[in-house]
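May I ask for an example protein's residues together with how it folds?

___
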Amino acid sequence: MDDAPLTVDEFVEYCQVQAGLLSGHVETMREEAERLLDEVDGRLAEVRDRLDTRTTTDGTESPQTPTAGGDDALADLEETQAVVEAKQARMQAFQSLAAAYTELAADLDDVADPQTALERVVQFEADHDAPLYFEERTTLYESVSEE
């Protein structure tokens, strides 16, 4: 392993990579949310079709009695909507952290001392609970904390 000290530019690059990874997660979550919304649209269309079949041939509606299937469908739609809302909140959190990493990278451009850059990145990650956002990657904060 290379024992050469890291440079400020490498810390800047690290922050940019972290921001890029977070943005990638946001895109993945966005695609998942869109699939869920498409699923909700499909289910709503099915419910509308079922309601339309309740209409008699002379155009008057038959009595509206709730059915167990209708209640289940509504509960399922509400659950899916809650999942989408949770994904949207998570996406916002990831976007905010990505933007903060980008700002930190820009701020580090003005730092001359690599030790200062390291300390700022580690403090930033501690303050923002960054390890929670990177399940498959060790942050600098975690690396320093393990030593």
Remarks:
- The chain is about 75% helix and 0% strand.
- The mean pLDDT is 87.
- Residues 39 and 86 are 16 Å apart (CA to CA).
